[in-house]
Design a protein that fits this description.
The protein is α/β, with parallel strands linked by helices. The chain contains seven helices and ten strands. It has one domain: Rossmann fold, CATH 3.40.50.1360. Helix 1 crosses helix 2. The structure holds fructose -6-phosphate. Belongs to the glucosamine/galactosamine-6-phosphate isomerase family. NagB subfamily.
Length: about 240
């Protein structure tokens, strides 16, 4: 894992956007694996700005998102599809048919999971996967557990994740309790992985994930075994690492 320390969240976001735009310049039809949450918002904003200046062309880019809540459709403001449209897809020249987010309304969820894995495979795999890091070390919605899950699957969210996400809902009861997520195996199959983390509240998760033992109790720790991971974290998030 190569670690870059950014001064603050703004610098982290610009550095991450730089790596993503470099990927798109090198391979205009790149497959980008994308995440939602607070962490990538500044990165997407920067990409939108560079696109408006004419510096990045998304016309051939394909995207696959990590996860989606079960029971929310794309028109629901709390859904991850809505988030992606709002923060990135609606603001750049990407073909919406090239953007993929798991379907949280699928009638046959097992089939949706299998189809999602096949889709990623048919696209030729993910060239660059962007990841945030959960406080409990989750990546995507792969929560701490007894084993690493390979492919796309359904998860019960932990209380910690439900609490962290409750800010995006009117009431805590409105937070879905299940989600569909790419597995740890799917994530590790990406050719390159870019993890972005900011804030003091993530400092323990960063230390344990990148400097502790590899264990399914801390899903992000398995990233230590991938050959091409870049971690961009701000000073606050790296506070316990040196
Ligand atoms: C989002 C996702 C999650 C988040 C993680 C960190 O698609 O897969 O794993 O990356 O929960 O969330 P934030 O960035 O909101 O702290």
């Amino acid at each position: 894992v190569r670690i870059y320390q950014a001064e603050d969240e703004g610098q982290m976001s610009r550095q991450a956007a730089n790596l993503i735009s470099a990927q798109v310049i090198l391979k205009p039809d790149a497959v980008l694996g994308l995440a939602t949450g607070s962490s990538p918002i500044g990165t997407y904003r920067q990409l939108v700005e560079w696109h408006r200046k004419g510096d990045i062309d998304f016309s051939e880019v394909k995207t696959v998102n990590l996860d989606e809540y079960l029971g929310l459709d794309g028109s629901s403001p709390a859904s991850y599809r809505f988030f992606m449209n709002e923060h990135l897809f609606d603001k750049v020249n990407i073909d919406v048919n090239h953007t993929h987010v798991p379907n949280g309304m699928a009638e046959d969820i097992d089939r949706e999971c299998r189809d999602y894995d096949r889709l990623v495979q048919d696209l030729g795999g993910v060239d660059l996967q962007l990841l945030g890091l959960g406080h409990n070390g989750h990546i995507g919605f792969n929560e701490p557990g007894d084993a690493f899950e390979n492919g796309t699957h359904v998860v019960e969210l932990t209380e910690s994740t439900i609490n962290a996400n409750a800010r995006l809902f009117a009431r805590r009861e409105d937070v879905p309790r299940r989600a569909i997520t790419m597995g740890v195996g799917s994530i590790l199959r990406a050719k390159k992985i870019l993890v972005i983390v900011s804030g003091e509240d993530k400092a323990r998760a960063v230390r344990d994930a990148f400097f502790g033992p590899v264990t399914p109790q801390l899903p992000a720790s398995i990233l230590q075994l991938h050959r091409d991971v870049v971690l961009i974290a701000d000073r606050a998030a790296l506070r316990l690492c040196r």
